[in-house]
Amino acid sequence: VKASNGKKVAIVGSGPSGLTCGAHLANLGYSVKIFEALHKAGGVLAYGIPSFRLPSSVVEDEVEYVRGLGVEIETDVLIGRTFYLKELFQECYGAVFIGTGAGLPRFPGVPGENLNGIYSANEFLFRVNLMKAHLFPEYDTPIKIGRKVVVIGAGNVTMDSARVARRLGKDVTVVYRRTEVEMPARKEEVEHGKQEGLEFRFLVSPVAFYGDEQGNVKIMRCIKMKLGEPDASGRRRPEPVEGSEFDMNVDTVIIAIGQSPNRLIPMSTRDLEITRRGTIVVDEHEKTSIEGVFAGGDATTGQATVIAAMGSGKKAAESIHRYLSSR
Fold this sequence. Notes:
alpha/beta, FAD/NAD(P)-binding domain, 2 domains, five-stranded parallel β-sheet, 10 helices, 16 strands, 29% helix
């Protein structure tokens, strides 16, 4: 680590992009402080990836490594609510990096999706991974998971959710509106899921959820699909088969059809340009529309990989170094 150059940088979010950016800046002699909204640092590494894929001890070691470089990490601080982005500049930070990820879940927008027992994958993984909800009452946060679990989606987060539920001893079915060929999840994740006892229902999409008198989900009404012409993603577009509706008995539904960035910072920060999808607009140097504010990771790209987020954090650190060196 270089000797301190006396310049301060604030980082919002302690996920892969924020930790990487902070580590590189600390090595360049900057005084770095990371603000994390949750009670534990690590971002998606801590709450979104199951321990059988990424042990929590590995994440904790990485966080401690960054702290060892002199980076300060303050948890339970929600920028845009606890205090605003502009206040960081009032506290003499020369630059700010936003690495808040893409943790806002998408829902299909069908009747009954607010019933009890229906979770976003984000909430499900958060409660199990970070809050240890499945060990209630030993831990304070409960989560109700019935015997018959359906996970809707086809990406890596879908597989993580399904495999976690299976490890909790549940009967788990993955429902996807296309075929296995179009699944964006890594092939090895799908194969591992099959070996662990996951069931798959392809060319099926939910159209409604129905509950009991207590408001707990019990039935998922589905429609069969067929594949039409390719859409913008290059995959064949799923089209409903008329008159093919059928019901599935369910106790718990986990919806894993994608996530987008939380808009709290853009909504509370005037002049911060975002796209229609809610991602922060940056140039090739990770600069935003506001002087001295940089951004990276899923907050700028939408849901992507940990490696991509780390690369973005490193690139932003280099840009911040150039920016502050010229001032």
